[in-house]
Amino acid sequence: MHAKTIVIVAGTLLLAPILIGCEAPPPPRESMSLIRLPGISEAQAFEATCQVMREFDFRLEAVNADAGYVRSFPQERTVRGGTGRISDPLVQSPHQVRLISEAYIRQAPDGAEIRLAVSRERRDTARYRAFPRDREQADNPQDTPIDMEAGSSPRQYETWTPIGRDRDLENGLRQALEERLLDTRS
Q1: Neighbours of 109 (CB within 10 A)
Q2: Cα torsion through 135, 137, 140, 144, rounded to 10
């Protein structure tokens, strides 16, 4: 009986992070921009990253100082062209695009390192709804409640397609971080 209690307690402790909802950030992608900041601490780089993202009008969704991770809420914009569609150069029709900034900050031997990316996504909900049978591989319906627009919020049934990164905005964030951190060191 005593061993059974120990197993139950140990199992509960191991499952606690899953049950509570503690979530570790995803690992950084190799394609992210790398900013090396010699002589700067991880804490300074983390604080500056949060401040610069806010200055660029990003609202922060995930801020985890222990993991060195910052991610913004999606920032939506209407743009003409530049969304990766074949018709973009000719038609220039307006499209909804959202930007998501993400940064990983870690301490390196000579200072801090920041991996930074600003992802772009195009809203394809209308196209996704217009051609639902293009995705089917079987004769019988495979739609889940969310596919049939029975989600509990609009965010659950919106379709966003990744279309690369906003390199100009990334470079602006990079320059602002370098100016803030490297100029204060001198």
Answers
A1: 6
A2: -40
Q: Which domains does the chain have, with CATH numbers?
A: 32-122+165-185 (3.30.530.50)
* SS3 (DSSP) at 16: helix
DSSP output for 101-133:
EEEEEEEETTEEEEEEEEEEEEE-HHHHHH-GG
Per-residue pLDDT of the chain (186 residues; tens, 9 = 90+): 566 666 565 555 555 554 444 566 776 677 889 999 999 999 999 999 999 999 999 999 999 999 999 999 999 888 766 655 565 556 666 778 899 999 999 999 999 999 999 999 888 765 655 565 555 555 555 555 555 555 566 666 677 788 889 999 999 999 999 999 987 655
Q: Return the residue matching tokens 């204060």.
A: 184
